[in-house]
Design brief:
The chain has 5 helices and 8 strands; from the N terminus they run αββαββαββββαα. By secondary structure, the protein is α+β, with helices and mostly antiparallel strands. It has a domain of 127 residues: Jelly Rolls (Sandwich).
Length: 242
């Protein structure tokens, strides 16, 4: 559950945040040697696709002015009076009116300046100007690096959590195996010897006998004596001796 939460947070951090559209239409009087600017907090910091559009003019009797679109770091140099760089495609110098200027700079944090100083090509010559302007921004997404760093940090934490979970799981498995009782080895019961009943020896049958030979091999039987009182010569006792 914890790992899933970290994954969701990392994915959310890597999704770029959309830049809120900015619109302002107004007028402002700027004294000589001063400037009117719109910071990255107004314009927003955008990725590729971020677009800024502006139009500005001054009164007919006002001196010319300059407009600059520059990064936040270059704006610091501009404020200190040092040499600075600006986005030429989004800047106009020594003009009295900018009917419409639109550009799509690279990803970054930008500042739009309406200049009434000697920093550019126009010179105010001590006169104020009254700017009448319209500024719009649209599209793009946040790319100041914070989201990337947040996602990278969350991914590092996620990797550490996964490693810790794996180590704990391995330790738990080892402890459980060590605490389990040792099971005796299985010894199968001895097998009984196979008993086979002995078979009687084979005796071939006697050869068949001849019928004649078989008659004389019958056992002899003596005929029974005749009974007494029979006929003459049979069963009568012998005559007395004379």
């Amino acid at each position: 559950m914890v790992v899933t939460s970290f994954v969701i947070l990392a994915l959310m951090a890597m999704v770029p945040e959309p830049v809120a559209a900015f619109h302002e239409s107004d007028s402002a009087t700027v004294q000589a040697g001063e400037y009117l600017y719109f910071s990255s907090g107004d314009l927003g910091s955008g990725s590729s696709g971020w677009k800024v559009t502006y139009s500005v003019s001054v009164r007919s009797y006002d001196p010319n002015f300059d407009t600059f679109l520059m990064t936040s770091s270059e704006f610091s140099s501009y404020q200190s009076g040092s040499t600075f760089n600006y986005i030429s495609d989004c800047s106009v110098q020594n003009t009295h009116v900018v009917s419409s200027k639109s550009c799509t700079p690279l990803a970054g944090s930008y500042v739009l300046v309406f200049d009434n100083t000697n920093q550019g090509s126009a010179y105010p010559s001590g006169y104020e100007v009254k700017f009448t302007y319209t500024v719009d921004t649209s599209g793009g997404s946040s790319s100041d690096g914070t989201s990337f760093l947040t996602a990278f940090g969350l991914m590092c934490v996620l990797v550490i959590v996964i490693i810790v979970v794996v180590i704990i799981a391995v330790i738990v498995v080892m402890v459980r195996r060590r605490n389990q009782p040792v099971q005796p080895a299985y010894n199968p019961p001895p097998q009984q010897p196979y008993y086979q009943q002995p078979q009687p020896m084979y005796q071939p049958p006697p050869p068949p006998m001849d019928p004649y030979q078989q008659q004389y091999q019958q056992p002899y039987q003596q005929p029974p004596p005749p009974p007494y009182g029979g006929g003459p010569g049979y069963g009568s006792p012998p005559p007395p001796y004379r």
